[in-house]
What does this fold into?
Amino acid sequence: MAKKTSLRTKAIVVFFITLFLILGSLFASLGKLRDQVLQNEAQAVADQVVSFRSWVAGSGMVWVNKLTPQFDEYLAVHNASNDTSFYGKNPALATRELSTIANKTATRAEFTVTSDNVRQKANAPDSFEKAAIAAFSADKSTKYVTEYEGDFYRYARPLIIKEGCLKCHGDPKDAPPAVIKKYGDQKAFHYKVGDVRGIISVTLPSIGFMEALPTLANPISLGGIVLAFLINFFFTSKFILARLHKLTEDTKAIVSGKLDTPLVYTPPKESNDEVDHVYHSVDLLKRSMELVVRKIARKK
Ligand code: HEC
It folds into this structure.
């Protein structure tokens, strides 16, 4: 039959089980932290888009006097007296051009403004974006939708029709002629205040386990685990195992007739330590043995 495992081995096993459980819950918390970090980052990007759109909307349009081949679209032209022309870009157009630049540069975040009823083909939604629009339309109280998609994190926030949007997204009869001329009178009209017109969609590279690993496996954390192990090991060895060993030796000595073997311990009156209690019981046993031995000696 196999021998029973020592307390020392059991204590080590318990230590490692505890360690794995703690690390496991730490990982679970890290997952939540990752969600929060990515969500905050995506939110900050969406906030920037909102600010940019409201700046352009507040100024009516942004007017540029040069059209580059990449950004040659405009919604209005203003011919100044000195033969220069200015081209007006409305919020949606200016945002699309901003996103084209942002998505080409080395920024982490990509963003687009899209809809389930696009006026502009280049703004067409992908499957995550379609699902997000459907979710916002189904439940108007939904503030945002997020999803992990392979190595990417996706975030979407609704764009709701307000009074000011109706000029170009309400009745086509009210729309500026330039909008009708460029996009026709079919696309993205007949909205009402409160309707979900579309979304701001943000895509971020996700944070993988391997990227998080250096953060976890740093000298302070690893040192902490080693220290925890040493403290555990020291405690079990010195305060439990060493004393049990000494008690075993003392008891053996008493059993072999050395009744004067001193038992060094703190009496239960002054100690809650369980080993002290075992010591005390052995001491009681030793005293009754002494008594018996003395009685027998007297009788002789
Ligand atoms: C001055 C006219 C005008 C106003 C006002 C306006 N839009 Fe637009 N909107 C457009 C045009 C033009 C486009 C297409 C832009 C492009 O080519 O990318 C567009 C596109 C969009 C898109 C992108 C999807 C698509 O159809 O291609 C969304 C979303 C959108 N608008 C929401 C709004 C919201 C919300 C408001 C009010 C806060 C608003 N718009 C006000 C003219 C306008």
